[in-house]
Amino acid sequence: MSRVVKRLAHAALTLAFFAVVVWLLRNELRVLDPHEVLAALSRLSTPHLAAALLLTAGAYAVVSSYDRLSARYAGVRLGAAVGFSIPFVSYAFNFNIGAIVGALGFRYRLYSREGIDAKRIAAIAACSIATNWCGCLAVLGGMLLVEPSALVRTWDLSPAVGRALGGLALAPVAAYAIAAQIRRKPIRIRGSAYRLPELRIALAQIGLGSAYWLLVPLVLYALRPPELSISYSQIAVAYGLAALGGIIVRVPAGLGVIEAIFLELFRQHVGAAPILAMLFAWRAIFLLTPLGVAAIVLLVLESRGHGRKVGPPVHGRKAMTH
Question: What is the rounded radius of gyration, in angstroms, for the C-alpha atoms of the chain?
Answer without folding.
Answer: 21
